[in-house]
Amino acid sequence: MNSQTEKLTLRGAAGAIAALRDPAAEGVPARGVAVIAHPHPLFGGTMDNKVVQTLARAFIACGWTAVRFNFRGVGGSEGVHDEGRGEREDMQKVIEQVAPEGPLAIAGFSFGAFVASCTAAPLWAQRDIKQVVLVGTAAARFSVAALPPEAHERTLVVHGESDDTVPLAAVMDWARPQSLPVTVVPGGGHFFHGQLPLLKGLVVRHLRAG
Length: 210
Prior knowledge:
By secondary structure, this protein is α/β, with parallel strands linked by helices. The protein has one domain: Rossmann fold (3-Layer(aba) Sandwich), CATH 3.40.50. It has five helices and eight strands, in the order E-E-E-H-E-H-E-H-E-E-H-E-H. The protein has an eight-stranded mixed sheet with strand order 1-2-4-3-5-6-7-8, with helices on both faces. Helix 1 packs parallel to helix 5 and helix 2 crosses helix 3 (111-123). The longest helix is centred in the middle third of the chain and has 14 residues, at 85-98. It is globular, with a radius of gyration of 15 Å. The mean pLDDT is 97.
């Protein structure tokens, strides 16, 4: 992402996990560590995805150290795709190593948002989770975890109105029983083509409000 980006090789249950760590912006009070998960590995998803990078930039601008990583079987990460089960373990292992204590933020895009939800929900009572950001949440294809009611004020869910990969209705069906608000980007598609600056702005506004 920039000259300060640090390449990491972390330990996972399936072998090495490749990751990138970007420090918080200079002159901004340090907030903690944000761990960000990428979209579906079998459809080209990696930690270099543009939406994932946009999320990282938003966190960095707000004082967070941003850590992106490749799920098992992607890039330099060892192992094979495990339909979400092993990927949850991957994210937990990353958090244990890059943010073993202190303030934590959890974020993800598409399949990564599903994994992030399944990571945040059980961790909520154990860790100081300051922020959760879920973008293009893959609620049509996976059992996205419900978030604890006390997490809702710290959670931002963003979805494109015209998402043809994950219909908005599927996300609303997931969010409705929780009374969890969803921020809808008018005309937005799954990858927010042409709207990444808007997406970043929404995330920054949420993080600063928190």
